[in-house]
Write a sequence for this structure.
């Protein structure tokens, strides 16, 4: 009997700092480390923080745009 495959998930979170190129580099590192999947956190700062919150600008810097997210996802699939 063959043991079932265990999927290894790399947690990238927001360590890309809003950079599509860093996100792609994280994908490469996860693949090189043997991960099957990489997980990023996506969020919309305006839905999490109130206007005027001093952390709002910082939160926006941690986000990838939707087009960049789609580009990174396509990159990871290839």
């Amino acid at each position: 009997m063959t043991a079932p495959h265990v999927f290894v998930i790399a947690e990238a979170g927001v360590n890309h700092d809003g950079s599509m190129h860093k996100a792609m580099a994280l994908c490469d590192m996860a693949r090189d480390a043997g991960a099957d999947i990489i997980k990023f956190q996506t969020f919309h700062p305006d839905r999490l923080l109130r206007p005027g919150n001093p952390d709002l600008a910082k939160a926006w810097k941690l986000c990838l745009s939707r087009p960049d997210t789609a580009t990174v996802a396509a990159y990871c699939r290839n």
Remarks:
- The mean pLDDT is 94.
- The two ends are 31 Å apart (CA to CA).
